[in-house]
Structure formats: C-alpha cells, structure tokens
Amino acid sequence: MRPSFLLLAVLAAGCQTRPAQETATTPPPARQAPAAALRETHWVPRELAGQQVRVPADTREPFLTLRADGTAEGDGSCNRFRGSFFSEKPDELTFSPLMSTRMACPAMQTENDFTRALGQSRTYRISGDTLRLFDATNAPVARLEAVYLH
Question: Are 80 and 111 in contact (CB under 8 A)?
Fold first, then answer.
C-alpha cells in the first residue's frame, strides 16, 4: 500500500500548475500622451518666474498661441498682444517685442510677468501637455499648459 501512496504523491506533484504570480500576464506599460505641438496650440501659463499664476475674478485667463506663420498672439489677462516668434533650432524659442494695448485691470501683475517671461525666453521643452520656457542661462521662466478648445 505504501508504494501506491508514494506513486500518487509523485504524480500529484507533477500535475500541479505554476503559482498565480508566474502565469499572470504583465500589464502593458502605461502609454504616455504624445507631446502637444508648439504651434497652433492654446498655451495657458500656470507658473511664471516660479510663482503659480492666479487670475483675479472677472478677468480673462491669459494665453499664448504660436501660429504656423511665425506670429505670436495672445492675451495677458488685461490686454491682447501680438508679435513674432523665432524657432530656427529644435529647442530655440525667442520672441520679438510684443505689441499690446495698455488698459489697466486687476491682473496687471500677471500680464507683466507673462510678457516679461516671453521676452526672456530663449529655449523651450515640451513634455506631454506642458511647455516650459527657459532664459539664456537655462533658468525656467514659465510653465504653460496646453488647453484644447472644442
């Protein structure tokens, strides 16, 4: 009787399946969203000179759009602006002096910080929906977020 018990134990051990952790499939790596396009994207500043952008109530959200023809246009919260931008190298981004109306509003500080950051911009990096602008020393001057309008 013992030999048949031993034979059954050996057969049962050989029929066992692998533990669950070995047979489970590994989930595919998380897919990262493609980077937003530099041009023809509605960019909204979220951080200027290391400070979070806060827009006072009853003022417009500032934004920047870089057009395919080399035109930079947007709104600083109080005034619309327009000028040119240059991006001749893959990571280069500089702006001509921006023309703007000069109406006063509660968001003048935000507008001044925004246009100053654009004037200081020399390079950029896009990661997903985030555009970061850097000055000539590679210090960050602005962080903008792509906002998709429907």
Answer: no
Would you state the pLDDT for residue 61? 94
Instruction: Name all domains of the chain by residue range, CATH numbers in brackets.
Output: 42-147 (2.40.128.270)
Contact between 52 and 46 (Cβ < 8 Å): yes
Q: 7 — phi, psi (to 5°)? A: -65, -40
Q: How many CB atoms lie within 10 A of CB 137?
A: 7
Question: What phi and psi, each to the nearest 5 degrees, are found at residue 130?
Answer: -115, 130
Which residues lie below 8 Å from residue 7, measured CB to CB, with a gap of 6+? none
Rounded Cα gap, residues 98 and 115, in angstroms: 8
Question: Whole-model pTM?
Answer: 0.76
